[in-house]
Specification:
498 residues, 18 strands, binds 6-O-phosphono-beta-D-glucopyranose, six-stranded parallel beta sheet, 20% strand, NAD(P)-bd_dom_sf, 15 helices
Length: 498
């Protein structure tokens, strides 16, 4: 399918029996296999505490793939071919012997394949286990070859700036930065990757892409789902840590970054770090004025009664954790001076949609009589990431007829109408990149720290000042009123797709 080829790989999944493996990693590996991206020589080794034979483990993965893969139920012939290379090893991640065993397995593959394979350690486990796994990999001398050995780490990457720094320090004592793949799965989404293509492969946007033409930017990632079964993790995190620190700030970086000199991992990531460093810092008063939080109450969603956040399993009944957050950011540089970036995210919201809206300034002078403008709206560029995958530019146009009447219309690039192929899942892209050794879509250590540094004042203020009015928005709403007020004070309102 392309001249890019993956090399022989041993792919070891810690947390092989966990939820992430079932829902994302296994289907992604299988679809990479179907699309011809896996190398001829590969081995997938799942590991966990429960005892399984290779066959039992592979049977479980088949069930997961049948349920979660975008390609639907697995074809028996293809599955038989793919699953020949699936193995399982029962392990105790605290026990050094486990790691020696991995070393032996890699060596066996190397002998059998007559090569030195790449080895990817995928840590699909709770972050408490990152240090022990990383240290044991090092102790067992499994990380010696920086060109071949890679480690993949899932979020949360730290709980705050300090813990993120500690984790970076630990990892960089064992691995080179070029071996560490920190996942932010939003970066793997097709429509998110397309933002850079749209900005930097077209000449018509760049002249407009600045404070002279753009009035404000909105980034909204709303979900209808509640916290589900993840109360134990989420109650210690909240929307700011769970979504804004990573996904939303990364989207903001895609919009605000300067053009990199090339599409090289470090060039791209340097420009993103520049954005985070240029973002205006918050003092305690700024937090009050520029950041709002919410927590969902019970309510009805699609005809079903749903519990409030405090009634969810494994959540403190008096929890002060926010399930909604909205922040007004500024990027203090030449391009963006005084252009507000409004971001919001929340659970149990009226709509599941991730949308970036760029609102341009008004025309300097309207030559048409005001009555001519039946619907008048400043130009907007709407980048819809999911579930709709599109880019629409809203412009004014004359309505056909004998009189001069103006309407706002959409010029649309819609994935569905343009392409017939199904786009890959974020995890397919990201896992393939770990095999290819391409870090462009992964978070570098300094990027993670810069994002934490920016939001720490908000987190600390919220931690010391409990919110007295939680829960403050009902399920199936657009979040608390204070979020409307945050943007309305500046004369704008949140944009929603119809
Ligand atoms: C995860 C968060 O990183 O992203 C979840 O931990 C959230 O709370 C999820 O639901 C959203 O991802 P997506 O791809 O469904 O938009």
């Amino acid at each position: 399918n392309s001249s890019i080829k993956t090399e022989p790989t041993v792919f070891i999944i810690f947390g092989g029996t966990g939820d992430l493996t079932s829902r994302k990693i296994a289907p992604a590996l299988y679809n990479l296999f179907l699309d011809g991206w896996l190398p001829a020589q590969y081995s997938i080794i799942g590991t966990g505490r429960t005892k399984f034979t290779d066959e039992q483990f592979s049977e479980n993965l088949l069930k997961d793939i049948n349920q979660f893969s975008r390609s639907g139920k697995a074809d028996p012939k293809k599955w038989a071919e793919f699953s020949k290379n699936i193995h399982y090893q029962v392990s105790d991640i605290n026990d050094f012997e486990t790691y020696k065993e991995f070393g032996k397995r890699v060596e066996e593959h190397n002998t059998e394949w007559k090569t030195q394979a790449n080895v990817i350690y995928y840590l699909a486990v709770s972050p408490n286990f990152f240090p022990i796994i990383a240290s044991n990999i090092s102790k067992a001398k499994l990380a010696e070859d920086p060109d071949r050995v890679r480690i993949v780490i899932e979020k949360p990457f730290g709980h705050d700036l300090e813990t993120a720094k500690e984790l970076n320090k630990l990892l960089s004592g064992i691995f080179n930065e070029c071996q560490i793949y920190r996942i932010d799965h939003y970066l793997g989404k097709e429509t998110v990757q397309n933002i850079m293509a749209f900005r930097f492969a077209n000449s018509i946007m760049e002249p407009l892409w600045n404070r002279n033409y753009i009035e404000h930017v909105q980034i909204s990632v709303t979900e209808q789902l509640g916290v589900e079964e993840r109360g134990d993790y989420y109650d210690g995190a909240g929307a700011m840590r769970d979504m804004i620190q990573n996904h939303l700030l990364q989207l903001l970086c895609h919009i605000a970054m300067e053009p990199p000199v090339s599409f090289n991992a470090d060039e791209v990531r340097n420009r993103k770090v520049d954005v985070l460093k240029a973002m205006r810092r918050f003092g305690p008063d700024d937090v009050r004025m520029s950041a709002v939080r919410g927590q969902y109450a019970s309510g009805w969603m699609q005809g079903k009664e749903v519990p409030g956040y405090r009634e969810e399993p494994k959540v403190d009944p008096e929890s002060n954790t926010e399930t909604f957050a909205a922040v007004k950011f500024f990027v203090d540089n030449w391009r963006w001076q005084n252009v507000p970036f409004y971001v919001r995210t929340g659970k149990r919201m009226h709509q599941s949609a991730s949308v970036i809206t760029i609102q341009f300034k008004d025309v300097p002078h309207l030559i048409f009589p005001t009555e001519a403008a039946e619907s008048w709206q400043q130009n907007r560029l709407i980048i819809s990431i999911q579930p709709e995958m599109s880019i629409r530019l809203q412009v004014q146009a004359k309505r056909p007829g004998l009189d001069m009447v103006l309407n706002t219309v959409d010029m649309v690039f819609d994935y569905k109408g343009t392409y017939t192929t199904q786009p890959p899942e974020a995890y397919e892209t990201l896992i393939l990149d770990t095999m290819l050794g391409d870090q462009t879509l992964f978070m570098r250590g300094d990027q993670v720290e810069a994002a934490w540094e920016l939001i720490m004042p908000i987190l600390s203020t919220w931690q010391t000042k409990k919110s007295l009015n939680f829960p403050n928005y009902s399920a199936d709403s657009w979040g608390p009123e204070s979020a409307e007020a945050l943007i309305a004070r500046d004369g704008f309102n949140w944009f929603t797709l119809p």
